[in-house]
Specification:
With 247 residues, the chain is of the alpha/beta class. Helix content is 47%, strand content 13%. α1 packs parallel to α2, α1 crosses α8 and α3 runs parallel beside α4.
Length: 247
């Protein structure tokens, strides 16, 4: 298995892409800490799935945009696993508004949840990764961080910042720690329930592969980036996006 003896932490792992990544890492031999903010029952389902592969898994509750919660989460994972080899910054939200009508609170919550959380979690794990001489940091960004989208300026801005963070941090922590991003296209998860049918129809018409992606289209990319197969990848943005962005 590609990730035997590795310990991973996946934020926002009780549902959607985060759940798929956590289960995929576990299926490849990793011990996995499943972070959740609210739904303990859903997180326990993910843990049960990973344990069915014969791997160790735990749930860890934290609002990853809160500094104190992040410290407690990292301490818990280190106490249980002894190390963190892979951090997947996946936690995020998706809301929709014209910028001219957007409440300041909506903007702030987007940046808090999708960007501040990644900063806090990354800062918390880096000392340990550098001390142990290796680690993998993976950001779940979005193709909209590369191309933007109407009614999603705040989301696009936060995801673009994650891509910039990926490229800058990759230089800062090389050669021992690699830092890469995944920029999925629209994926069939409950997160897209907040988006209007009109917007989804418009997006579908733009996609060369003529379908929204599935979680199973994204999770293998995370396994690859977490594994030794990606040892020469850093500062990169990989895009399972159905052809929506072709850089």
């Amino acid at each position: 298995m590609k990730l035997s003896d590795k310990a991973a932490l996946v934020t926002g792992a009780s549902r959607g892409i985060g759940r798929g990544i956590a289960e995929a890492l576990g299926s490849e031999g990793a011990r996995v800490a499943v972070n959740y903010r609210v739904s303990s029952a859903a997180a326990e389902e993910v843990v049960a799935s990973i344990r069915s592969f014969g791997q160790e898994a735990i749930t860890v509750q934290a609002d990853v945009a809160e500094e104190g919660d992040v410290k407690r989460m990292i301490d818990t994972v280190l106490e249980q696993f002894g190390r963190i080899d892979v951090l997947v910054n996946n936690a995020g939200i998706l809301t929709q508004s014209h910028l001219a009508d957007m409440p300041t609170e909506m903007w702030d919550e987007m940046i808090r949840t999708n960007l501040r959380s990644a900063f806090l979690c990354t800062r918390a794990v880096l000392p340990g990764m550098l001390a142990q001489g290796g680690g993998r940091i993976i950001y779940v960004a979005s193709q909209l961080g590369l191309k933007g989208a109407q009614d999603l300026v705040h989301y696009s801005a936060a995801k673009a910042a994650l891509i910039g963070m990926t490229r800058a941090l990759a230089r800062e922590v090389a050669p021992s720690v690699t830092v890469n991003a995944i920029a999925p296209g629209p994926i069939e998860t409950d997160m897209v329930a907040n988006i209007t049918e009109e917007w989804k129809a418009m997006k579908m018409a733009e996609l060369p592969l003529a379908r929204f992606g599935r979680v199973s289209d994204v999770a293998p990319t995370a396994v690859f980036l977490a594994s030794d197969d990606a040892s020469y990848y850093t500062g990169q943005v990989l895009g399972p996006n159905g052809g929506d962005v072709m850089p």
